[in-house]
Write a structure and sequence with these properties.
Layout (H helix, E strand, L loop, with lengths): L4 H13 L13 H8 L2 H5 L21 E3 L2 E3 L1 H13 L7 H27 L6 H15 L4 H10 L4 H21 L8 H13 L4 E11 L5 H16 L4 H8 L10 E5 L7 H8 L6 E7 L2 E12 L9 E9 L7 H16 L7 H7 L3 E9 L5 H8 L10 E3 L3 E11 L9 H27 L2 E3 L1
Antiparallel strand pairs: 1-2, 1-11, 3-4, 3-6, 5-6, 7-8, 7-10, 9-10
Helix pairs in contact: 1-16, 4-5, 5-8, 6-8, 9-16
């Protein structure tokens, strides 16, 4: 049973703290929920292994993307506008079959949003138009750096609309308010649980901690191979440049979906799945693996980052750097570039730190650029390891080419990060509470789906 505390915590907190941040680019329902849903699955129904479908006038997998949910209508335009938001977030054109699959997932998401708003209204938990508009305005400014009018124009230009985002805002606000009033007050975490977890964290200082992204797809014996094929297709699209965050928000069935599949910082044993633990232990930042079959379905993992628990991460150091560079005029031959490069390297090696670098650079026609506040982790990985080994006044090996020119980075100063104390007792208490709220919320939504009257057109 996969249960990741920071996953559930992030998912719930992201909704409480900032509705707008999870919108355009866009649980763990813990995989525990999926496992429970599968308990007794096909065995309980006594299904045959060889299924033969009875012919029907229409293919149920080719429904048009419109629906009526307990009387509330979801139109094809609603789906089109939400799909346009996701497609615009991609760095490439999506193939037709991918868009078709995306439309089905968007429809499912819109159904969930509709159910959440309806339940909140039934319980007299209202979300006003003013609240929605204020959240939309904050989203435009904070997440997109646009005015409301600019945001409106942008959405129209990509084939979407403000109402598409406002609809999602309304659903998230309604669900958050419902959970805060009807679920959160009945969740309790004992001091003993918190103390035990805090003690274990202190004992684990210095051990590895991982930040993982996950896309979970539920499966059973009947649809196992189809789900595996879908997972392989998602991996293929991700490796071609697709956004992991966008795919997680639309396709993942874990509660972390609302934060783009981000599990947060965890230790591998928190995954509670040997298959996932073994795979993650071999991964490096940026690596994608899967599909990994686990009880209840398949997982796709992305290693976002790694660090040592409670220890300062050298990549959080803030550097003061000076870039020294020369360019090559058009028509420069390889021989001329080599001679000019040798002159540049010799001049750089003769520099006595950052104090006289500007004057010596000017003497050979080189330019300098200063940056006094840049984190190591903001730099390309190839430069990170080199710069961490330098002393003040030293330079990186030269890099570049005939088109870009040649340059080096000189280290002028470094502010090393302080060691982190880890989460406080209060933070751990909040995390455990949020995890339990999230689990109850997923069961609540599952019950709403089960009882809903949904008509497809």
């Amino acid at each position: 049973m996969t249960t990741v505390k920071s996953f559930a915590t992030k998912a719930f907190r992201s909704t409480l703290v900032g509705v707008g941040a999870a919108l355009i680019a866009g649980s763990l329902t813990s995989v525990a929920v999926h496992a429970q849903a599968q308990a007794g699955g096909s065995d309980a129904f006594n299904l045959p292994d060889d299924i033969s479908f009875i012919s029907t006038p229409a293919n149920p997998n080719e429904r048009r993307a419109t629906a009526r949910v307990n009387g509330s209508i979801i139109t094809g335009t609603d789906v089109d506008h939400r799909v346009a938001l996701i497609v615009a977030a991609q760095e490439r054109e999506l193939p037709a079959e991918e868009v078709a699959r995306l439309r089905l997932q968007v429809l499912r998401n819109l159904i969930d949003e509709t159910l959440q708003v309806q339940e909140a209204e039934n319980l007299d938990i209202a979300v006003t138009d003013q609240e929605v508009q204020q959240s939309y305005e904050r989203f435009a400014v904070e997440a997109r750096g646009m005015s409301v009018s600019e945001m409106d124009a942008y959405l129209a230009s990509i084939g979407s609309s403000p109402n598409s985002i406002k609809r999602q805002i309304r659903g998230e606000l309604a669900w958050t308010n419902l959970l805060r009033r009807n679920v959160a007050p009945f969740v309790n975490v004992s001091e003993g649980e918190v103390t035990d977890l805090w003690t274990r964290l202190q004992e684990s200082r210095g051990t590895a901690e991982y930040r993982l992204g996950e896309i979970f797809l539920s499966a059973n014996t009947a649809n196992r191979e189809q789900v595996r094929a879908n997972a392989n297709e998602i991996i293929s699209q991700l490796r071609e440049g697709g956004s992991f965050v966008a795919y997680a928000r639309q396709f993942s069935e874990a509660s972390s979906r609302v934060v783009g599949g981000d599990l947060g910082w965890i230790q591998l044993q928190q995954l509670q799945q040997p298959q996932l633990e073994a795979a993650a232990a071999q991964m490096v930042p940026g690596q994608l693996v899967g599909p990994l079959e686990i009880p209840g379905g398949f997982s796709i993992l992305l290693m976002i980052d790694q660090r040592q628990i409670g220890m300062a991460d050298p990549r959080d150091a803030v550097l003061s750097l000076k870039q020294i560079a020369i360019g090559f005029p058009a028509g420069t031959t390889a021989a001329e570039a080599e001679a000019r490069g040798a002159e540049f390297v010799a001049a750089v090696e003769s520099m006595n730190g950052c104090g006289d670098a500007d004057a010596r650079a000017a003497a050979i026609g080189a330019t300098t650029v200063n940056n006094d506040e840049i984190q190591v982790r903001q730099l390309p990985e190839a430069l990170q390891s080199v710069l961490l080994q330098l002393n003040v006044g030293q330079v990186t090996p030269p890099f570049g080419d005939l088109q870009e020119g040649i340059r080096v980075l000189m280290l002028c100063g470094r502010d090393d990060p302080e060691e982190t104390a880890g989460p406080s007792v209060e933070q751990i208490m909040a995390q455990l509470e949020d995890e339990r709220i999230n689990r109850r919320a997923q069961r609540y939504l599952r019950d709403l789906r089960r009882d809903a009257v949904i008509e497809y057109n």
